[in-house]
Structure formats: structure tokens, C-alpha cells
């Protein structure tokens, strides 16, 4: 039953109730008056039930809209997450790697919170990358050994 049908039914019941109210105000014998009062009571009860049904319909429509939004958000997240895959990097970190260009890594902790935070290269010898969201660091690249570039002939005091 849709809102228009409920509205029409409510209007019809109201008309009937108003008609019976008008009859009772006229001079009608007592037995007829009692029957009319009984009919008015039942019409009033029917109106209350119809009003409750209408309110329940509004609640269901609001809940339906909320669930549609949640479903849309979930589908959107799933499509974004499908662009990444969990991978083990050369440095041993387990992070999400993009499948598309430009290639980049994303923080696994933030992805658990349904956020994609791109890891930033800290340009250190340890090969660490940092998450801009939670500030966690990950050993993405293999560590590079630092070599000493000391020149034996370079003595400023000689």
C-alpha cells in the first residue's frame, strides 16, 4: 500500500466520521443514536490504525533510504579497494600496492579503517616509507649500505 492509497483511505474514513457526527447532532431516536456512536467509535479506531500504518510506512522508507546509502558506500569502497593488492615489498613490509599507474603503496592499517593513505618515501638508507595518515613507517625498499667515500689525498691542512 502506498502513501496515496493510505491518504485516500484516511480521507474516506474522515468523511464517514464527519457524516455520522452530523447525524448524531440531529434529532435521532436513542437506539439509532447509540448505533451511530458505535460506528463513530469504530471509524475513529480505524483512523488511528491507518495513521499508525502511515507512520510505519514512513519509518520503513527512511530505513530503506539509509540502507541504500550504506550499500552504495560499501560498493564504492569495494571498487576502490579492488585497485590495490596486498604485497610483500623488497624491504619485507606487507602493504597494499596499486595495480594502476602511477604505482604506489598504501598503508594497510589505514585501509582497515576504509581510508587509502599513500605511503611517502622517506629517502633513507633503510628504505622506509611513511604513512601520511597514521604516521606508521614501513621498510618498503631493501636497505642500502652506506659506503665511506674518504679520499686519502684530501687533507685540508697539508
How is this structure best described in words?
The structure is a single chain. With 158 residues, the protein is of the alpha+beta class. It has three helices and six strands; from the N terminus they run ααβββαβββ. It has a three-stranded antiparallel β-sheet. Strands 4-5-6 form a three-stranded antiparallel β-sheet, with no helix packed on it. β1 (84-88) and β2 (94-98) form a beta hairpin. α1 packs antiparallel against α2. The protein is rod-shaped, with a radius of gyration of 37 Å. The chain starts with a helix and ends in a 19-residue tail after the last strand. 9% of the residues are buried. Residues 146-158 have low confidence and may be disordered.
Low-confidence stretches: 146-158
Strand content: 5-15%
Termini separation: 101 Å
Q: What's the mean pLDDT score?
A: 85
Largest sheet: 3 strands, antiparallel
The largest sheet has its strands arranged as 1-2-3
Q: What percentage of residues falls in helices of 4 or more residues?
A: 40-55%
Radius of gyration: 37 Å
Q: What is the tally of beta strands?
A: 6
SSE succession: HHEEEHEEE
Number of helices: 3
Helix/strand-derived class?
A: alpha+beta
Shape estimate: rod-shaped
Architecture blueprint of SSEs:
Blueprint: H1 3-25, H2 30-81, E1 84-88, E2 94-98, E3 105-106, H3 108-112, E4 119-121, E5 128-131, E6 137-139
Antiparallel strand pairs: 1-2, 2-3, 4-5, 5-6
Brief synopsis:
The chain is of the alpha+beta class.
